[in-house]
Amino acid sequence: MRDAAQIVLLLVVLSDLAILGTSRLSSCIRGLAAQGLLLGLLPVLIAPQLSVHAVSLALGTVIVKAVVLPWFLAWAIREAAVRREIEPIVGFIASQLLGAFALALAFAIASRLPLPALHQPLLVPVSLATLMIGFIVLTTRRKALVQVVGYLILENGIYLFGLTQTESVPFLIELGVLLDVFVGVFIMGIVVFHINREFDSLDATRLTELTD
Amino acid sequence: MSGSGLIALGILSVVAPALPGIAGKTKSLLTGRRGPPVLQLYADLRKLLGKGAVYSRTTTWLFRAAPVVVLVTLFVAALLLPVDGREASAAFTGDLVAFAGLLALGRFALVLAGLDTGSSFEGLGASREVTIASFAEPALLLCFIALVLATGDLSLSGMLGTPLAAAWPRAGASLSLVGISLFVLLLAENSRVPVDDPATHLELTMIHEVIVLDHSGPDLALILYGSAFKLALFGVLVVSVFVPRAGFSTPAALALLIAGLGVAAVAVGIVESAMARLRLVRVPQLLVGAAALALFATILQLG
Fold it and tell me: Do B289 and A17 touch (CB under 8 A)?
């Protein structure tokens, strides 16, 4: 189980890097859905024994992160008729290099953090890397929908960090976080839809030109 | 110096021209065509060797030297690889840099020959080849660094030979990342599909093929054989990483190598029929992705 969890964590990093490198919104969302599925597998793989807590957390994660949110984002790009991130603020090659740098930084920081011994040593560096890569996507893309994807990757990083504490965090709090994220993305989706209707574009930089 | 290493190298140089044939046949069969026979390149080489060479009056000795330099650098590079899966024919500490350098020297000679003809098409191809190589080389060295960290040996002979088999249980995840990255490099370095199309007939879209447009007869034969041998060389790299053969007897290791090369050629054919060529501006991104994979593998070794 430990090896399986390790492979899943590596795949999470690969999906991060893949999302950083694609310009197509639909592949971004597919990458996000794959990441959600991987995150859903983790609680079951990491838990020392199969508990109701771990299984229900896994099920909730898969339903929200791998099915509902990607479906909702896919609906949003269909409604807003945007396909590609044309001109990111930082180019795709540069952002992929930034991602690789973030990865190195995450591993360097994680090895220095005074953490209790974990049964899955990769969990902390991967969560930090996912957090930073989410932040890169959030800050370097222009299209509001990709920024939502960045926010979700950021949240996935926080979720991964939370997994180090699965035994001590009550189930209700985790479900509450999932619900929060869901509602947050739902509201963002509606806002994005209205931005698109108002300005015929999802370019978030245009929002600075708002004048009355 | 080991006898079995030289025998393995000899076998490799004999089977090399079949690899582009296997890739091409796979592509043809998958797209519903019959395709040229697998051994077509052998016939082509024989035909070209029987012909005379034509040299343009604008070319100099650079143009004539290039095919020989390309082939010789590739053979010397092959001496550094443990083709039989145990140890290389020649090995010294840090020979991984020499390996990358020899490949670069061969490419440099070819590019100079292309520029020597004065044709604008060949200049275009030369500039593209060098651009792509400048992205591929860091990725190759990062792959080697990850292998060095995994095995603790600074020569290709040790990295890909006996210590590698011992490293797999410890560092399997990182080694498979290196293998994938090396396969992407195999496609890029040998001008295969997502980077360049070996079957294209339009000079403007060619990269590798356009540099050798002016070569003819035995020179062209050397260059065609050289590209097939380079494909085999990278095939050996990929196969050695995925299937450490140190534990097998020499004949079994060789059989495994040839089977592995066949699988690699089929994989190249599948990639070629499954995806279209990338736009030139997207190629660096693919190679940076491969470098990021290799860097990740390196970080995993350090962490």
Answer: yes
| pLDDT tens-digit map of A3-47 | 788 889 989 999 999 998 888 888 899 999 999 999 988 888 887
- What is residue A203's three-state secondary structure? strand
For B237-286, the pLDDT digits (tens) are 999 999 988 888 888 989 999 999 999 999 999 999 988 888 888 888 89
Q: Are B70 and B106 in contact (CB under 8 A)?
A: yes
Counting Cα atoms < 13 Å in the Cβ hemisphere of B203 gives 12
Q: How distant, in Å, are the alpha carbons of A28, A110, B215 from that of A35?
A: 11, 21, 50
| Global pTM value | 0.88
Nearest to A146 by CA among A107, A92, A210: A92
Cβ pairs A/B, distance under 8 A = 44
The residue with tokens 């399986």 is: A4
Q: Does B302 touch chain A (CB under 8 A)?
A: yes
B295, A103: Cβ pair inside 8 Å?
yes
Q: How many residues are given for chain A?
A: 212
Among B109, B293, B92, CA closest to B211:
B109
What is the residue-wise DSSP string for B191-240? T-TTT--TT---GGG-SHHHHTTT--HHHHHHHHHHHHHHHHHHHHHHHH
Structure tokens at A39: 């995150």
Rounded to whole angstroms, the Cα distance separating A126 from A122 reads 6
Question: Which residues does A93 contact at the CB level (< 8 Å), separation at least 6?
Answer: B284, B285, B288
